[in-house]
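Model it.
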Amino acid sequence: MPNGKWRVDFREEGKGRTRVFKTQAQANAFIAELQHSKNQGTWINSRSRRIPVGEFLERYMQDRRHNLAVSSRYSYEQYLKNRIKPRWEHVPVGEVTRRDVQDWVNDLADELAPKTVRTIHGIFSGALKLAVLENCLSSNPCNGVQLPKVRRGEKVYMSLEQLEMLIDEANGDKKQLIRLQATTGMRFGEVAGLQVGDIDFARHRISIKRQAVTVGNAVHVKEALKTEGSRRVIAFSSKLDEELKELCKGKKKTDFLFTKKGTQEPLKRPEGPKSWLGCAVARIRAVDDDFPHVTSHDLRHTAVSLMVSVGAPISVISRQVGHKNISMTLDHYTELFDSDLDALTTAMDSIL
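Modeled.
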């Protein structure tokens, strides 16, 4: 060109295109890249790069609609609405850079828990991976982004005395619910989904067949459980017989054992300080500062600690709580097996 610049003419989607470069080397590099990408079938045309990210977010959710649990789908939709679309919905997919994604993730990490940030990044990355598969991007700009580390939170294990304090403070059938969950290790959703016909009093067994999952303000009953281990038969103490039989009185086999007051609907998960569980804990803490901040999942943790304390085999505990394998149980509750180290010390002392 007269001004010393170099022009490359090429065709894209049947139309003539032009790119101008400052040097011959830049022009030759573009020609080589163009030829290579066309030979490999990876050439990304300019029209595809202009497609807004929002379209790929919609396609991603549409493709995953049959694989997501109701609760997960609700969470994803909230993350899309509040965290992803406000930043990316109208951005052309070809303009998303790894640096932009990293800055966005850093901002999210200032406000949200590491696990939440990772989930949001995973959704966004999934949508851009779809853009790569559809030849609208040559690579995923989410790759290589540094994510915050998830640090395992400290579990709460109540003593028997603390458990009895909580049961005494609870109202109505919540007393039986707490005792059942804190001695069997059931997940709250499994307790909420429990029906009268699932209880075998003769053998002291409970069949876990479904979960009642809280999604927003609604409760959804899931017959299909996550894993084979989740669908199981567990044991319960004979000391719960009278309380459970009292709850079953006047109910059909298909009725839920625990229901919202005045309805036949399963209970919603007690979350936050204003829930029935949060209020019971607050009343105890008003007179006992040492009482822990207990959540519904801590009742499950407490059950595991009680099982360990009575010497139950790890294989039985793993089966009871519905873990996929023993390794999963050991990984979740390593701190409960410190006494095994004491036994090892004693054994080694005996041979040295």
